[in-house]
Amino acid sequence: MGRSRPISSSFGVFALVSALLGSSASALADEGQSAEALFQAGMSDMQNKRFVTACPSLRKSYRVEPRAATLFYLAECEQGAGRLATAAATYDEYLERFDRLSATEQKQETDRENLASSRREALEKDLPFVKLTIPASSPDGTRVTRVPQGGGEPVIVALNVPLPLDPGEHVVSTEAPGRPRLDKRFFIQKGERKSIMLDLSPPTVESSKQVRFGAPLAPVPSFLPPLNPGISARRVMAYTLGGIGVAGVLTGIVTGAVTLAQKRPINENCTELKLCNPAGESAKTTAKTLGIVSTAAFIVGAAGLATGVVLYFTEPPPPKFSMKPQNLTVGVGNAGPASAALELQWIW
Question: The whole model's pTM is what?
Answer without folding.
Answer: 0.51
